[in-house]
């Protein structure tokens, strides 16, 4: 402190010429101070220097208080704070697992602050060290006080073996002396394992004559390597060559105990020795361990001044004004920014508190006097405060207090066994408690922790290890049964698809709406195939498949079924309306397929949203037993079930529509089987939901449920069709599902494709007309304003033999029909498909049957100006149906069967191609009759029909027919109030709107409603009259046709009897038979074998020859 005041007195003085006696030099200003060594002295000096804003650099003061910039704003140091020393001691305790220690510290800033830092670190959760005993002692305390401290420490119930001493060197020596006294005395106290702070470091004076007590102890030393070459430089110094140091002569006098200047009175004093200058500094040389820190502190000041000069005095060769002003605040900022590495590659820089990075040496005292250095460096500790990096590196073996390398224990309680946790009873003491079998011990929190799902505690009970999951073997009975069911379902579905493709154009296949049937089969295959992913080992990919495919596959199946049943229900409901004002919408195959995929797209959106919210992955079942693990897909129950709600919604709608159409039709029972499918599916799904919630083998349950649902649909929807196609092909005709009692609505077409193809081949020209041979129906569409198609049909049973020709014709067009069925992408909007049109016609015929029995259920379909033309077309269609039946292979039920007549096959010339005229001449006997009746049908004119219509309606309505006259135009202009009912019914809507312009809205609605009522009344009367006329006309025509057919059959029977007679008489009549035969048969048989064969064949008359009457009939009519 006196030296500091002297520096300040010289530095603060402002005079350039001293007036004081004895002053012969100018004052030198002080810009920075280095030192002193002790922390307490450094704090006192800093309190004085900061008043004058003079920076201070410490080389030995380590107290943490000096890091407080609010109190010591002009201080920085090149040695680390004791906070880092506490970290080094804490890491050393953890390294040797000394968890139960005592701490002794000296009174004063150094010891107390060091203890506080260590206590804060140990109190942290991450530290496992506990301070069992702590006490403060004065540095100048007596020996007895030191002994009492150790006696109290030794008498603890749980005696700590390790003692940490935050003390000065003198206090450390006093503890060694007290331990020696207690160990050698009556108490025979066991020695402690000491850890000293840097106050002891590697000082030999601390352990002098106490080496045995200090053996095995550890001390902390600030890293300070020896300076190479410093001894040579130091020993070469002399008062004559070191005049730059004003204190060197004083140091020389103190070092050698001599005086350079002696007064006259002391010259004769023998006790005073005069310095000769020949003294040698190399004698008793001992380098101070803090020498490197002193050098670094001097270098920091020099580099700070240099940086300040280069920054502030760039253009001056001498000191600038800012340097001469001695601005300590500015200089302190430059000192904080100094950064360099010393000659030992040790970085030197400062943090915001003016502290450098920490680097400590861990020393182990081995206690041998003979060694030059009894301190063995066994490790090092480095810490960077700004970055929080701590590193303890123990590089050498250590010796402990008992002079062995056996690590001593310093614990309150013994470590617990495997699977036990420590329950603390007092500071750093505990009792051991066992954990459960499924728990492990967390050493950090000292708690029993449950192992996560799918793991089990390891052998040491310090963690968990994965359990090998139990995967049900593919060879188990359940898996084999599920796989067999899935494979069988896939094979059956594919076989069904192949059969349907081979019979693509047959009535049975067409009645199922082929496109929707193929979509349903694809969904069923996906339902079966998903079982392979369900039964495989759960993974991310398999879980994704089992999450996505099932709901979408079921949506495909039930969307197609819903579309199919909805179309049937809509057509049936539309046919019940009294007035059909517009064409039914969305009935084409293209519309049905689009609607199906729209419903499937909704399911895809639901599944996609579910995947974004809960991505599927494989995990372990939560209900697994200990040490038993079941791997399954991690999917929340709601995420799994929500997509199936849409499927269940489709099933519910399908069930409702199937119930409404359960009576349609009578034979193929498509709607009835759909209903059975839905009923069974609802039962299966309810059982599946119950089992899914309560079973541990969810994958197996889902596999059986999916396969069972698909099997129900496959068996009830397709097996009846397969049975008819494969086992009873004779029933694969339209007559099998178009009933004669109450004609029910259903899909399907007869032999339109077959007949159209045969006509094109026979005539060699394209035609759009289709004639149904097997069902005996011929239809013609009349295009009217706002009207729809009407069909006149005569249903005739067909023999079994006619099916073979149908299948042959169907197979030839299977590929083209199938390609056409699915060529819906890019198609233009067209009219109703043939199948749908026949469905609509069947529904109308069904309603016609009901109208005949009840006049109240009239279905009004024809436009008011086309009644006469439609009636004529109906009569003509009936004629064509009867003639085609007579000319074809079928037998008309109105004519009795011809007796069995033997058929003779004789060799003739090869058949030749007959054109249309030749066929017409050969069939003259039939064509004449046909022409006469076709002419009669065409003679019926619209005017004569309408006149008859008016005569029939006259007794019923005084207003007359309001819709049958073609020639009546719009009413003549007259006032609005003079309209009669007949004129109001005949006026158009546009004319009525013009007449009603300006009238009240209520009045307009009344007149329009009156007009609609009159027109509907006219429709009903016209249609009823038309049906009566048609029925009467058809009965007359049928009677005439029966007579003609009877005549033809009699002639044919007579010819057969004559032919039989000629053959029996011998070969003499053979030539005459060949002459007669061409006049009888229109065309020769296709193939005649060489030998004469007499065959008895029970067939219809039309089976004798291959005559085709349709081309002739078409030409005649």
From TrEMBL:
<keyword id="KW-0217">Developmental protein</keyword>
<keyword id="KW-0297">G-protein coupled receptor</keyword>
<dbReference type="Pfam" id="PF03131">
    <property type="entry name" value="bZIP_Maf"/>
</dbReference>
<dbReference type="GO" id="GO:0005886">
    <property type="term" value="C:plasma membrane"/>
</dbReference>
<dbReference type="InterPro" id="IPR000337">
    <property type="entry name" value="GPCR_3"/>
</dbReference>
<keyword id="KW-1017">Isopeptide bond</keyword>
<feature type="compositionally biased region" description="Low complexity">
    <location>
        <begin position="954"/>
        <end position="975"/>
    </location>
</feature>
<dbReference type="GO" id="GO:0005634">
    <property type="term" value="C:nucleus"/>
</dbReference>
<dbReference type="GO" id="GO:0004930">
    <property type="term" value="F:G protein-coupled receptor activity"/>
</dbReference>
<dbReference type="InterPro" id="IPR017979">
    <property type="entry name" value="GPCR_3_CS"/>
</dbReference>
<keyword id="KW-0804">Transcription</keyword>
<dbReference type="GO" id="GO:0003700">
    <property type="term" value="F:DNA-binding transcription factor activity"/>
</dbReference>
<keyword id="KW-0963">Cytoplasm</keyword>
<keyword id="KW-0832">Ubl conjugation</keyword>
<feature type="transmembrane region" description="Helical">
    <location>
        <begin position="640"/>
        <end position="659"/>
    </location>
</feature>
<dbReference type="InterPro" id="IPR011500">
    <property type="entry name" value="GPCR_3_9-Cys_dom"/>
</dbReference>
<feature type="domain" description="G-protein coupled receptors family 3 profile">
    <location>
        <begin position="478"/>
        <end position="741"/>
    </location>
</feature>
<keyword id="KW-0539">Nucleus</keyword>
<dbReference type="Pfam" id="PF07562">
    <property type="entry name" value="NCD3G"/>
</dbReference>
<feature type="transmembrane region" description="Helical">
    <location>
        <begin position="704"/>
        <end position="726"/>
    </location>
</feature>
<keyword id="KW-1133">Transmembrane helix</keyword>
<keyword id="KW-0238">DNA-binding</keyword>
<dbReference type="GO" id="GO:0005737">
    <property type="term" value="C:cytoplasm"/>
</dbReference>
<keyword id="KW-1003">Cell membrane</keyword>
<feature type="transmembrane region" description="Helical">
    <location>
        <begin position="671"/>
        <end position="692"/>
    </location>
</feature>
<feature type="region of interest" description="Disordered">
    <location>
        <begin position="952"/>
        <end position="977"/>
    </location>
</feature>
<dbReference type="InterPro" id="IPR028082">
    <property type="entry name" value="Peripla_BP_I"/>
</dbReference>
<dbReference type="InterPro" id="IPR001828">
    <property type="entry name" value="ANF_lig-bd_rcpt"/>
</dbReference>
<dbReference type="InterPro" id="IPR008917">
    <property type="entry name" value="TF_DNA-bd_sf"/>
</dbReference>
<feature type="compositionally biased region" description="Low complexity">
    <location>
        <begin position="772"/>
        <end position="783"/>
    </location>
</feature>
<keyword id="KW-0010">Activator</keyword>
<feature type="coiled-coil region">
    <location>
        <begin position="1031"/>
        <end position="1058"/>
    </location>
</feature>
<feature type="coiled-coil region">
    <location>
        <begin position="829"/>
        <end position="866"/>
    </location>
</feature>
<keyword id="KW-0175">Coiled coil</keyword>
<dbReference type="InterPro" id="IPR017978">
    <property type="entry name" value="GPCR_3_C"/>
</dbReference>
<feature type="transmembrane region" description="Helical">
    <location>
        <begin position="477"/>
        <end position="501"/>
    </location>
</feature>
<dbReference type="GO" id="GO:0003677">
    <property type="term" value="F:DNA binding"/>
</dbReference>
<comment type="subunit">
    <text>Interacts with FIZ1; this interaction represses transactivation. Interacts (via the leucine-zipper domain) with CRX.</text>
</comment>
<feature type="transmembrane region" description="Helical">
    <location>
        <begin position="586"/>
        <end position="612"/>
    </location>
</feature>
<keyword id="KW-0675">Receptor</keyword>
<keyword id="KW-0812">Transmembrane</keyword>
<keyword id="KW-0807">Transducer</keyword>
């Amino acid at each position: 402190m006196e030296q500091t005041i002297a520096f300040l007195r010289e530095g603060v003085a402002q005079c350039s010429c001293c007036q004081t006696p004895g002053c012969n030099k100018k004052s030198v200003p002080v810009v920075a101070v280095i030192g002193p060594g002790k922390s307490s002295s450094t704090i006192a000096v800093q309190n004085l220097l900061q008043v004058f804003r003079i920076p201070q650099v410490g080389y030995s003061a380590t107290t943490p208080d000096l890091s407080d910039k609010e109190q010591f704003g002009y201080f920085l140091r090149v040695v680390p704070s004791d906070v880092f020393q506490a970290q080094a001691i804490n890491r050393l305790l953890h390294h040797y697992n000394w968890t139960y220690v005592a701490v002794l510290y000296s009174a004063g800033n150094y010891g107390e602050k060091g203890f506080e830092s260590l206590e804060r670190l140990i109190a942290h959760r991450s530290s496992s060290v506990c301070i069992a005993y702590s006490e403060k002692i004065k540095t100048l305390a007596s020996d007895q006080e030191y002994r009492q401290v150790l006696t109290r420490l030794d008498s603890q119930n749980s005696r700590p073996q390790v003692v940490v001493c935050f003390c000065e060197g003198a206090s450390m020596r006093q503890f060694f002396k007290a331990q020696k006294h207690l160990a050698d005395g009556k108490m025979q106290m066991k020695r402690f394992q000491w850890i000293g702070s840097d106050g002891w470091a590697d000082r030999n004076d601390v352990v002098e004559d106490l080496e045995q007590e200090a053996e095995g102890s550890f001390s902390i030393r600030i890293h300070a390597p020896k300076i190479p070459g410093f001894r040579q430089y130091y020993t070469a110094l002399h008062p004559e060559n070191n005049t730059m140091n004003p204190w060197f002569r004083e140091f020389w006098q103190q070092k050698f105990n001599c005086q350079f200047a002696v007064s006259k009175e002391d010259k004769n004093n023998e006790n005073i020795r005069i310095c000769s200058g020949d003294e040698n500094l190399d004698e008793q040389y001992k380098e101070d361990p803090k020498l490197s820190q002193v050098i670094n502190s001097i270098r920091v000041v020099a580099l700070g001044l240099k940086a300040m000069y280069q920054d502030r005095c760039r253009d001056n060769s001498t000191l600038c004004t800012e340097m001469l002003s001695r601005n300590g605040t500015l200089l302190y900022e430059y000192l904080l920014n100094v950064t360099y590495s010393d000659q030992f590659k040790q970085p030197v820089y400062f943090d915001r508190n003016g502290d450098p990075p920490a680097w400590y040496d861990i020393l182990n005292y081995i206690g041998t006097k003979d060694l030059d250095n009894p301190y063995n460096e066994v490790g090092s500790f480095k810490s960077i405060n700004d970055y929080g990096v701590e590193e303890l590196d123990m590089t050498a073996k250590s010796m402990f207090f008992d002079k062995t390398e056996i690590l001593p224990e310093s614990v309150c309680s013994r470590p617990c066994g495997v699977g036990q946790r420590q329950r603390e009873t007092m500071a750093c003491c505990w009792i051991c408690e066992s954990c459960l079998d499924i728990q492990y011990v967390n050493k950090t929190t000292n708690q029993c922790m449950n192992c996560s799902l799918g793991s089990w505690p390891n052998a040491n009970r310090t963690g968990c290890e994965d359990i090998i999951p139990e995967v049900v073997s593919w060879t188990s009975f359940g898996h084999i049964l599920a796989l067999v069911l899935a494979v069988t379902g896939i094979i059956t579905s594919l076989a069904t698809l192949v059969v349907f493709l081979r019979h693509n154009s047959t009535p049975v296949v067409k009645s199922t709406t082929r496109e929707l049937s193929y979509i349903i089969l694809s969904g069923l295959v996906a339902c079966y195939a998903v079982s392979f992913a369900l039964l495989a080992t759960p993974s991310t990919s398999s879980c994704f498949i089992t999450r996505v495919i099932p709901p979408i596959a079921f949506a495909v199946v039930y969307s197609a079924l819903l579309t199919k049943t909805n179309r049937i229900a809509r057509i049936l409901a539309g046919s019940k309306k009294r007035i059909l004002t517009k064409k039914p919408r969305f009935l084409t195959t293209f519309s049905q397929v689009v609607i199906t995929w729209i419903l499937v797209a909704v399911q895809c959106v639901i599944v996609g949203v579910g995947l974004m919210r809960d991505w599927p992955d494989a995990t372990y079942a939560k209900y697994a037993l200990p040490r038993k693990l079941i791997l399954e897909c991690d999917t929340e129950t709601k995420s799994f079930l929500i997509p199936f709600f849409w499927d269940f919604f489709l099933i519910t709608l399908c069930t409702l529509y199937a119930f409404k159409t359960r009576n349609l039709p009578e034979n193929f029972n498509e709607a009835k089987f759909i209903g059975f499918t839905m009923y069974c599916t609802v039962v299966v799904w309810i059982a599946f939901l119950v089992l899914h919630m309560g079973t541990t083998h969810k994958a197996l349950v889902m596999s059986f449920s999916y396969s069972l649902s698909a099997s129900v649909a496959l068996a009830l929807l397709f097996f009846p069709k397969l049975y008819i196609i494969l086992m009873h092909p004779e029933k694969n005709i339209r007559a099998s599902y178009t009933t004669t009692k109450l004609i029910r609505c259903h899909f399907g077409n007869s032999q339109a494709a077959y007949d159209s193809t045969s006509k094109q081949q026979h005539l060699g020209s394209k035609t759009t007309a289709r004639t149904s041979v097997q069902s005996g129906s011929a239809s013609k569409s009349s295009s009217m304003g706002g009207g729809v198609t009407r069909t006149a049909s005569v249903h005739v049973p067909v023999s079994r033999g006619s099916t073979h020709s149908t299948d042959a014709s169907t197979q030839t067009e299977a590929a083209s029909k199938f390609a056409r069925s699915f060529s819906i992408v890019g198609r233009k909007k067209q009219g109703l498909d043939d199948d749908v049109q026949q469905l609509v016609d069947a529904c109308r015929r069904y309603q016609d049957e009901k109208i005949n029995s009840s006049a109240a259920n009239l279905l009004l379909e024809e436009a008011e100006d086309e009644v006469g033309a439609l009636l004529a077309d109906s009569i003509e269609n009936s004629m064509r149906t009867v003639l085609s039946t007579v000319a074809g292979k079928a037998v008309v039920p109105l004519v009795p069967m011809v007796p069995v007549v033997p058929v003779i096959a004789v060799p003739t010339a090869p058949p030749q191609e007959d054109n249309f005229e030749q066929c017409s001449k050969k069939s003259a006997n039939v064509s004449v009759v046909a022409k006469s009746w076709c002419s009669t049908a065409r003679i019926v004119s619209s005017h004569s029909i309408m006149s008859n219509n008016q005569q029939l309606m006259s007794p019923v309505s005084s207003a007359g027919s309001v819709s049958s006259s073609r020639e009546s135009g719009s009413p003549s202009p007259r006032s609005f109030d003079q309209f009669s009912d007949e004129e109001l019914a005949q006026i158009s809507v546009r004319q009525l709107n013009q007449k009603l312009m300006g009238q009240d809205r209520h009045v307009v609605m009344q007149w329009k409603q009156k007009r609609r009522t009159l027109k509907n009344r006219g429709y009903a009367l016209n249609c009823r009259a038309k049906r009566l006329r048609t029925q009467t006309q058809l009965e007359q025509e049928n009677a005439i046709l029966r007579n003609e057919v009877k005549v033809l059959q009699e002639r044919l029977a007579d010819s057969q009897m004559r032919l039989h007679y000629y053959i029996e008489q011998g070969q003499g009549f053979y030539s005459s038979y060949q002459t007669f035969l061409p006049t009888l048969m229109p065309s020769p048989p296709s193939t005649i074998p060489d030998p004469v064969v007499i065959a008895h064949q029970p067939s219809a008359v039309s089976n004798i020859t291959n005559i085709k009457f349709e081309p002739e009939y078409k030409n005649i009519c």
